[in-house]
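HOLO CASE FILE
Compound: adenosine-5'-triphosphate
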Amino acid sequence: MKDLRRLLALFAPYTRWMLGGIALTLVVVLANIGLLALSGWFITAMALAGLAHTSMDYFTPAAGIRGLAILRTGGRYLERLVTHEATLRLLSRLRVWFYQHLEPLAPARLQYYRGGDLLSRIRADIDTLDNFYLRVVAPSVAAFVGVALLSGFMSLFSPAVALINLGGLAVAGVAIPYLAHRAGRRPGLQAVETRAALRSTVVDGIQGQAELRIYGAAPRQIERIGTLTDALIREQARLSRIAGLSAAGSSLTTQLSIWLALLIAIPLVTRHALDGPDLAMIALFVMASFESVSGLPLAFQSLGETLAAAGRIFEIIDTRPQVEDPAHPAPPPALPALHCRGLRMRYADDAHWALDGLDLDLPAGHRVALIGATGSGKSTLINVLMRFWDYQQGRIELDGRELREYTGEDLRAFSAVVSQRTHLFNTTIRANLLLARPDAGEQDLIAAARQARIHDEIMRFPDGYDTFVGEAGVRLSGGQARRVAIARALLKNTPLLILDEPTEGLDADAERLVMAAIESAMQGRSVLLITHRPRALRHMHEVYILEQGRVVAHGAPASLAEMPAFAAYSQLG
Ligand SMILES: Nc1ncnc2c1ncn2[C@@H]1O[C@H](COP(=O)(O)OP(=O)(O)OP(=O)(O)O)[C@@H](O)[C@H]1O
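Model generated. Tokens follow.
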């Protein structure tokens, strides 16, 4: 119920569109029923008039029939137009709303979700939510109002028939759909989950194709996909069986209701309490009235799927970001001077301290390197500085204020990060660069690329800056991709530059080129560099050696050169 209320609240801005759609649905249903009933009445009345050799006014009913036919067709057209417009508007709002909630959760809260699972929530679950209006709300409201109007009209002729009809409509529109919903709940839930699992497995399989082939695990992955597909087909078959049975039940109820109505109405005609043409009208009216509840079985069934999807969506929406912005943020920082005192951070309450009393000073314009064994907390420090994760104890001061006083956005606007995993989007080099500064001109792009030592190579591509880099930049070499990332960071032109093992995984030539790019990028900025490469340390003012989240030594590179730890950690790469 709570999820239902929340769903309705989400749709509130489109109430007018939705009410318009419902009103039109109702008009179409009523016009259809009216058309059938009036036609039945008209044909019978004409026949009886012919038999009795009496005259009758056939203009009015003929005009009525024509009017209802036009109303039905025009109404259907408008109904489709309005309901689809409402649906599309809703859909785009839901996607944006979901993404806006998703973004602050990255990366801390999202690391436990699989990529395919998130994709599935964004796409399939939102689509399913969208059904809520088209398949659940609109048909239910239209049925409710429609049945009330129809029963009122019918009781003018025969309250008993109206009652029978109401009973039949309740069975076909409520009892059968309810039973079908009960029966379809579990397979409905399972189908949503299996579909999500299938999507994650397929996405994983595509992304990890190379590994699956190298380790000969592709057949197992295929088998997993096969098993999930079979499960999905079984669940869908169960849902279809339930849908089929409920359709058959509804149809049986319709026929029985017509029989019962006739059983009651025929004696009324013999007793002259009802006209002959009215009998035909009543029979057709009863038959057609079931159209008003025809959407309900699907509505009940969709309700299960919609609620399951809503549950999955709300689960993410209700997750609080790991780091929240302060209620009254300080103005953005200006001076890139950073000081950490007794900094402690762990990823979970029961995890060990990834940073365990870290002290570090990065004066404005200085270059500081961090070295240390794997797992010593170097990347964690960056996660904390970027406000992706919060720290539990100690202080971080930036430009004289505690880091927590700034908004995450201001902090990220103040710094650029280049890491070995910097993502390039599957678009052109130009678009990848412009990500950092959408309003940058051609000359800015070229200047940044030149400084990152990549311009000449870009110009050698046939399409220059308009070269497509492929998925995650696969069409560039590792060194080229890294230099495009550095150019992007340069274009952002921030006072603080953070480099997380920017030359990791590159061969000596590529490393040399990337280092040249980095040297030029470091000019005039505060720099925090994580590296194992001794070559990079030459340009640093100070080197910090980390062990288990703590600084064990720091000083100018030359002063540390004799330390065994320095030699060990600066040559690991
Ligand atoms: N996202 C995370 N969730 C939970 N624990 C994490 C996460 N990232 C890192 N850790 C843990 O925190 C500790 C420090 O990891 P961190 O990545 O900061 O080390 P690092 O010095 O950067 O290592 P490397 O040189 O291998 O990159 C490790 O014990 C690691 O397992």
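CASE NOTES: Residues 111, 347, 354, 372, 374-380 surround adenosine-5'-triphosphate (CB under 6 Å). The chain has a mean pLDDT of 87.
CLOSED: yes
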